[in-house]
Amino acid sequence: MNIYEDYLSDTLGELRKLKKLAERAIDQVSDEQLFLTIDPESNSIAVIVRHIAGNMRSRWTDFLTSDGEKPDRNRDGEFIISQETTRTEVMSWWEGGWELLFSALTPLRPDDFTRTITIRGEPHTIVQAINRQLVHYASHIGQVVFLAKHLKSSEWKTLSVPKKR
Question: What are the phi and psi torsion angles at 116 (to 5°)?
Fold first, then answer.
């Protein structure tokens, strides 16, 4: 393997871990809790998922050939959830976003890493673009885990090593 293949393999592994971490947290909350906000300025887990999925659709669709901020993206709309929205719909957004991400990244080859792409018109190397998104998703998945843990309180089942063990 070369450094590009090592980087891509490691990054894909970390992204899979983040996806699973969020899913394990989401699985613990009720349908009602999925849509709850803890204060008027907060986002629900469902809204965070919708935002991540919208970002993924924009960034990973035609990843190597078009700007990562698609002209049809309605970012502000990602923060609005209708009362008719279901868990199934939320998880469909989630899966669709991850499918786009893995479909864009998995086939990358070492020579792809010499390319420059744009996000909002700003040039990025492939490594910069991937790292930008990895950090973005990790921060939002941290929010999902925090919210789920807060909402479950004493019923929370830890996702890592329990305290004092």
Answer: -120, 135
- The domain spans of the chain are 3-155
- Residues 26 and 151 sit within 8 Å (Cβ to Cβ): no
**Mean pLDDT (10-residue bins), the chain, 165 residues:** 93 98 98 96 97 98 97 95 97 98 97 96 98 98 98 93 75
Task: Kindly provide the residue ranges of all beta strands, DSSP E only, lying in 16-98, ordered along the sequence.
Answer: none
b (16+ CB within 10 A) / e for 81-105: beeebebeebbebbeebbebbbebb
For 162, counting Cβ atoms within 10 Å of its Cβ (0-12 exposed, 13-18 middle, 19+ buried), the class is exposed
Q: How far is CA 122 from the centre of its chain?
A: 21
Q: Which CATH architecture best describes the domain 3-155?
A: Up-down Bundle (1.20)
Report in angstroms the alpha-carbon separations of 116 from 5, 27, 59, 64. Answer: 18, 38, 14, 8
Name the β-bridge partners of 117.
Answer: 124
Q: What confidence score (pLDDT) does residue 29 get? A: 98
